Amino acid sequence: MTIALETQNLEKQFGGLRVTRDLSLKIEQGARHALIGPNGAGKTTVINQLTGVLKPNSGRILLEGQDITDLPVHKRVLRGLSRTFQINQLYPDLTPLETIGLAVSERLGHGGDWWRRMGTRADVNGEIADLLTRFHLLDVMNEQTVTLPYGKQRLLEIAVAIAAKPRVLLLDEPAAGVPESERHDILAVVGSLPRDVTVLLIEHDMDLVFSFADRISVLVSGALLTEGPPEQVARDPQVKAVYLGEEAVNV
Amino acid sequence: MSAASDVGYHAQRQARWHYGEVAFWLVVLACGFVFPSRYLIMTDILRLALFAMSLDLILGYAGIVSLGHAAFFGVGAYAAGLLALHGIVNEPVLALLVAGLAAMVLGFATSFLVIRGVDLTRLMVTLGIALLLEALAERFSNITGGTDGLQGIEMQPILGAIPFDMFGKAGFFYSLTVLFLLFLFARRVVHSPFGLSLRAIKNNPLRAAAIGIPVNRRLIAIYTLAAFYAGIAGALFTQTTAIASLDVFAFERSADLMLVLVIGGTGYLYGGLIGAVIFRMLQELFSTITPQYWQFWIGLVLVVIVLVGRQRLHRWVLYVPNLVIKQVAGRKAVVAVPESDA
Q1: At the N or C end, where does chain A have fewer CB atoms within 10 A?
Q2: CA-CA distance, B267 to A105, in Å (whole number)?
Q3: Number of domains making up chain B
Q4: Mean pLDDT over residues A91-99, rounded?
Q5: Nearest residue of B to residue A112 by CA position?
């Protein structure tokens, strides 16, 4: 199996606090990999290092075998690594149409085009329409993002990440805060991602993790506790101990 | 209509010309014929409008605050003055471009300082750069004329054909042409993917980077372009008044510009133009009523604008025009000011 995303001895400290400890992860091409752990385990810090928002103190990050440890955020995106945020990071004043249009334009290399108008490229328009339809956003495409209901914003959050056509997608708690009635849309969208896209899911919701992931890594206090297929992780007494009092692990 | 063509249609919604815009420019043009005795003040308004549009490009679109935009205005002004005084470039249009490019070079060089910080840092850095240039202009008085300014500038005819006249008629139409052309260019730029990416950066730089936008490079580009615009405004100042003195770099000039955008609003290009008209009119009005205390009244108006809210003021101001437009062209053509704000 080829490895899509890999970390080697990743180490991150905030002052004296070690938030990532000697973390070595391997995520296989096309995997549905979940990274779980209790609150404060350092999951989001790992994501921020993978995407380039934070620089690790030591260790390396490899995307499809190539060292990306020192690349800035936007270059990693162009290499096929995209993410969603645990807390929506959208453009309040822009519409879903503009938000997705921009992401598609950037990927196709038209982002720096300062002459041709938005909306005059047929290939970009086609992709925008396709994404808006897939994510049930067509009816609200001209509304300002800030006025959209939370569930729609959450869908837009994921749609923007997909618009970058990632080969590796990092989903940071995609269903966080979404009311029960709107969860179905999110889960359906996550479930229908193409198989050749490698997905790393960071999640709190154990039902979602066990219904989605084919491999699970458990992070505790910034270090890897254990890793394996869901059944094995669910039976692991160490994992049970960590989650005791937090949530029952059942398959 | 298929979803894709629907998307294309709506994506170009803001880029299409509205009736209100056409009317706006027709009114501006008409002013040139209706008030032949007021060319000087109207030219002054056009220069201020262009200068404000320049600040709007970085403030309204990219979210870069600046208290030192006069730096580029000043460089443009002195460049145009020196070019004309020493007969280096005699033709005004060409000299205008060269002066704009000089300001642009400075804009590019200082953009690296500006993109590093956030709002407060940017205010201080831009302010510092303008003060620095003012001090330099004073120090090298053998070139700039020091506190006396550049004197004895004689402007050659525009394109070798149209001489500047003493009533300022040529100057007015020259400035209006330059403003309109640069407006068209800016309008094109802000509706491009590049322009949209600036708004994304202003809204959320974290996410902008996360979809692959090279944030710093885009900010450098727009800052450089805005410097070019400000330089052109400064050069117009020198060319139409035939003077360039130290006050082109003055802090008040940068600060006034902020007031213009507070009055007119940001992020829709017309804010600077409308703001410039209202700002100068108020200045004129108050200084005729109370020559000594006009600044008090300007201050009061600003406080009211901020407290009442520009949105509401715009609704009141646009109430009558929209009533007319509704009769003529139906509801869809109504002029509205976008919500986005500094």
Answers
A1: N
A2: 21
A3: 1
A4: 96
A5: B194
Contact A126 B340 (CB under 8 A): no
Query: Residues of B at the A interface (Cβ-Cβ below 8 Å)?
Result: 2-13, 15, 188-189, 191-197, 199-200, 203-204, 206-207, 209-215, 217-218, 221, 339-340
Contact A103 B197 (CB under 8 A): no
Alpha helices in chain B (DSSP H): 3-11, 19-34, 39-56, 70-85, 92-114, 119-139, 141-144, 169-190, 193-203, 205-210, 215-241, 251-264, 270-289, 294-308, 310-329
- E strand segments, B232-307: none
Q: For B82-101, how does the pLDDT look when each residue is reduced to its tens digit (9 = 90+)?
A: 999 999 999 999 999 999 99
Residue numbers in B near A130 (CB within 8 A): 3
* Residue with tokens 């507070």, as numbered in its chain: B262
**Reported ipTM:** 0.90
Using a CB-CB distance cutoff of 8 angstroms, which residues of chain B are in contact with residue A77? 209-212
CATH of the domain at A209: 3.40.50.300
Q: Which amino acid is it at B179?
A: L
Q: What percent of chain A has pLDDT over 90?
A: 76
* B256 occurs within a structural domain: no
Confirm whether A134 is domain-assigned: no
Residues of B in contact with A93 (CB under 8 A): 199, 203, 339-340
* Domain residue limits at B71: 38-250
Copy the structure tokens of residue B87: 């007969």
Sheet with A198-202, edge to edge strand ranges: A81-83, A168-172, A198-202, A32-36, A215-220, A223-228
Mean of pLDDT values over B2-23: 90
| Chain A residue whose CA is closest to B203 | A91
Which residues in chain B are contacts of A139 at CB distance < 8 A? none
Quickly state the pLDDT bin for B340 (edges 50, 70, 90): very low
Q: Residue B329's pLDDT is what?
A: 61
